[in-house]
Design goal:
Blueprint (H helix, E strand, L loop, with lengths): L2 H11 L9 E3 L1 H7 L2 E6 L9 H10 L3 H5 L2 E4 L3 H13 L3 E5 L5 H11 L3 E5 L4 H15 L2 E2 L6 H17 L6 E5 L4 H13 L4 E7 L4 H8 L22 H10 L2 E5 L1 H15 L5 H8 L12 E6 L9 H11 L3 E7 L6 H9 L5 E7 L9 E7 L6 H10 L3 E4 L4 H7 L2
Parallel strand pairs: 2-10, 3-4, 3-6, 4-5, 7-8, 7-10, 8-9
Antiparallel strand pairs: 1-2, 11-13, 11-14, 12-13
Length: 414
């Protein structure tokens, strides 16, 4: 059976639980990019992400014996919630492995969706360690492992997103922007469009700190990253799936990576302007539009909003990363001159009228006014940075800029 046939079958399989999410034209984005920009709202699924589609479809295809033995997955996020919800609906027992470091909010969400059908096992400090524990458990208990992306039935379930887009829009779609973590969603959606709308350009979008698909395509082989920035947790994967890599290599027009700070700016903008709450991975497709803005004029564009499971406790971090990316937040180690009133001079003369000190910490509490201090300054306009540096140097303030020194910045600020 071909993959596109499996996608059609998956659409029937998941009809009982998955919402056919709306495809909504966004007026602000359409005006900004002089295009018709539509948002595919997968954040409106019962588990607030598209992951329900693949998980439910995979589980429905199991044999009665496999179902009776229960299923297993390893996930700290949306996949775990999709599996939990599916098992609760189907009356199947699930054992869900999550890293010990998983926030309580995510653990509670899995319990909420899975109810009495889910047992949560906290193992390992990282996802890789957790994944290894889950695999071993499957072997020992002869249980079925529900992979988050590298599985044909899971890919077929995610591909139903593409079917719904085409069923919602009769006019030709020029571009579809889809986030990539392990590649299941991109593989499924691109398979549908290759068969049904081959001239549509499918653009995969990854976080810059976890560009595993982009790296693999460049190396022409599935390549594991040594390290990843885990901030965009829904897409921070060291190695994409072997099957998803093969499909995406054939189907995707391009894969681009977006700085995490740009993702944060997009999250805040969507909340402030659209009252739309998205998780970092859910903002990737919209954050990518700036890179394509010259190509989008008068085009029809779809952005897949993959999920909205954003922990409110991350708001300050999101704002901070956005300000750093936009050039509005700057950190320094300042060695104040050996003269009285140096601190007062710094505040009154060095800082501009609209500059704010948002962080101040003396390195030596018993040597204030003369000792070094870590200072965070927020600007109203990024162009004011040059003036700030000029004032520091003209008034003989010895300083070290921290934003570009990742190791020192993390040690002192992060």
């Amino acid at each position: 059976m071909s993959l596109i046939t499996k996608v059609y079958q998956a659409q029937q399989n998941i009809a009982r639980v998955a919402v056919q999410t709306p495809l909504i034209k966004n007026l602000n984005l359409s005006e900004l990019y002089q295009a018709e920009v539509y948002l595919k709202r997968e954040d409106l699924q019962p588990v607030r992400s598209y992951k329900l589609r693949g998980a439910y479809n995979k589980i429905t295809t199991l044999t009665p014996d496999q179902k009776s033995g229960g299923v297993v997955c390893a996930s700290a996020g949306n996949h775990a919630q999709g599996v939990a919800y599916s098992c609760c609906q189907l009356g199947i027992q699930a054992t869900i492995f999550m890293p010990i470091t998983t926030p309580k909010q995510k653990i509670n969400q899995v319990r909420l969706f899975g109810k009495d059908k889910v047992e949560i096992v906290l193992k390992g400090d990282t996802f890789d360690a957790c994944f290894a524990e889950a695999s071993q458990y499957c072997t020992e208990h002869h249980a079925v492992f529900i992979h988050p992306f590298d599985d044909e039935e899971v890919i077929s379930g995610q591909g139903t997103v593409g079917l719904e887009v085409l069923q919602s829009m009769t006019e030709f779609i020029d571009y579809v922007f889809v986030p990539i973590g392990g590649g299941g969603l991109a593989a499924g959606v691109s398979t549908v469009f290759r068969q049904l709308s081959p001239n549509t350009k499918i653009i995969g979008v990854e976080p810059a700190g976890a560009a595993s698909m982009q790296t693999s395509l460049r190396e022409n082989k599935n390549t594991m990253l040594k390290t990843v920035d885990t901030f965009v947790d829904g897409a921070a994967v060291k190695r994409v799936g072997d099957l998803t890599f093969k499909i995406c290599r054939e189907n995707l027009y391009e894969v681009i990576s977006i700085p995490e700070g740009k993702v944060c700016t997009t999250i805040l903008k969507l909340y402030n302007e659209e009252a739309l709450v998205v998780e970092p991975a859910g903002a990737l497709s919209i954050a990518a539009l700036d890179l394509y803005k010259d190509k989008l004029v008068d085009k029809k564009v779809v952005c897949v909003i993959s999920g909205s499971n954003n922990d409110i406790t991350r708001t300050e971090e999101i704002k901070e990363r956005s300000l750093l990316y936009e050039g509005l937040k700057h950190y320094f180690i300042v060695n104040f001159p050996q003269r009285p009133g140096a601190l007062k001079e710094f505040v009154n003369e060095v800082l501009g009228e609209n500059d704010d000190i948002t962080y101040f910490q003396f390195a030596k509490k018993n040597n204030r006014e003369r000792g070094p201090a870590v200072v965070g300054i927020e600007l109203a306009n990024r162009l004011d940075y040059d003036s700030l540096i000029k004032q520091l140097e003209e008034r003989n303030f010895n300083y070290q800029y921290l934003n570009d020194n990742e190791a020192l910045f993390t040690h002192l600020i992060g």
